[in-house]
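Give me the 3D structure for Thermonuclease family protein.
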Amino acid sequence: MAVYLLVLIFTFGLTSFKNSALAQSNKKPIERSSDLPSPLKAEVVGIQDGDTIEMKFVYNGKKAGFRKGKAVRIRFLHINTPERGRPYYKVAKQFTSDRCFHKIVSIKHSGEFDKYGRLLGEVVLPDGKILNKELVKNGLAVHFKKYSSSQEYSDLEIQAKKRKIGIWSPQGQVSAAVK
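Predicted structure for Thermonuclease family protein (179 residues):
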C-alpha cells in the first residue's frame, strides 16, 4: 500500500512539474525595441494608478528619457484620475485594473512622451472600448483640460456630473471638500 502511495505521489508530482515547465515555456518573453509600433499592442503587467499602466514591452528609443530600456508606462491622454490619498483614488485604480490587468490592449498614440518618460495614449480594451473614456463616463476621472481640448471628453465629464456619479456624487463632493 505504501509503495502504491509513493508511486501515485511521484506520478502526480512529475505531471505537475511537466505542466509547470510547459506553462513557463509558453510565456512570451518581453519584447524589446527601439521602434515604437503604432498602435502599441502588449500585455498590461502593472497598474500604477487610475491613469497610468505598465506594459510588457521595453522601448529603447531616446524619447523615453530616463525610462529608456525599461517597461513602457502609459499615461492616459485627455484625463486625470484622483491622486493617492484623495477620494476615489482606490476606486479609479481598481476600475483600471479590473478592465486591463494581464490583458492585451492596444495603445493609440502619436509617439509623445511626458517629462516622466511615459507614453501618452488612449487604451483600447479587448472589447474595443477606450478605457480613458470609460473612466470619465463612470465619474472616476476628469477631462484634463490643461492638456486636452477634446470636446468628446468634455461632454463625457458633463454627463457624469449630471448623473452625479463617482467623484461627482454627493459623497465625492463632500469628501473632496473635506480634504
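The mean pLDDT is 86. Let me know if you want a second pass.
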